[in-house]
Amino acid sequence: MTSDNITLLAIESSCDETAAAVVRNGRQVLSNVISSQIDLHKLYGGVVPEIASRKHIENINQVIEEALTESGVALADIDGVCVTYGPGLVGALLVGVGAAKAISFAAKKPLIGVHHIEGHISANYICHPDLEPPFLCLVVSGGHSHLVIVKDYGQYEILGRTRDDAAGEAFDKVARSIGLGYPGGPKIDKLAPSGNPEAIYFPRASVENAPYDFSFSGVKSAVLNYINGCKMKNEEYNQADIAASFQDAVTDVLVDHTILAAHDHGISKIAMAGGVACNNGLRRKMVRACEKEGFSLYYPEPIFCTDNAAMIGAAGYYEYISGRRDGLDLNAIPGLKLGEK
Ligand code: KG4
Ligand code: ZN
Prior knowledge:
By secondary structure, the chain is of the alpha/beta class.
């Protein structure tokens, strides 16, 4: 499914990155500008929604302008404006949605609302020009953990989801509890290779009668209990061993559930998406498992795994060519479900 030379401006502001990109035909990234607020939120140990919205307001115009300039495409030659309208922080989403509506109205360009998770999944189209649905995708970010069958462009069947914390959230909370700071995922990933993954056994949880669902609150509590136990005994704990053992437990579950779902549904094409898909331990384990099973594996390069607007431009393209157009009544929907339009 292609449509020649459709160039879209894409905007993303659902959490703590203000981002804009210009993407051609869903797969060719002409510019990808990301203004991260991480250094600001680090001071508070996590994202502060009110600060995130204010920073988006301060940054968004400049980020969009940079994305257009870097792409070498004039606004007049853009075919449409796509924007993340959910899920995410409502105040943060509203900044991107407001900016996209203003540009769409002023420049008389179609407006296309895009689902954030659909964006994460579509990051794979950017990095793998040959990738076409159907495939199975493990979506693991700070706010979401899903196992999804991508049946066709824009068509999803959710097989499993987390019952409590998202995988990235568990990484962030565990990192904070062992004193690594925010955002925890990359810090645990970096420290884990210098620890022993077999030093401490943390639980690999599964949910009764829901083999593809996840639950990460147990492993998070087990880490906290372990640390408290050490403190009560006046024993030092080894940060690297905890990082390695925790990462091993979480990635075991992610890989096992994905491989099980692929077998049960007769799918041999597997993709990963979202911030946690950057994790080196997860990538190594999934590569090994897929090689063993004879499955092909796809994951985006790190810059397209964490929040960015290029992925919104990729997803937006397939929405655009399927005819989706939004009006100026497009609103931010913080709890938007995947597959909902
Ligand atoms: O996809 P993303 O940028 O934002 C959401 O939509 O949530 O994901 C951010 C999450 C954070 O929880 C962060 O700690 C995690 O992805 N993350 C990682 C790594 N890089 C980012 N987790 C594990 N290992 C990493 N290398
Ligand atoms: Zn995200």
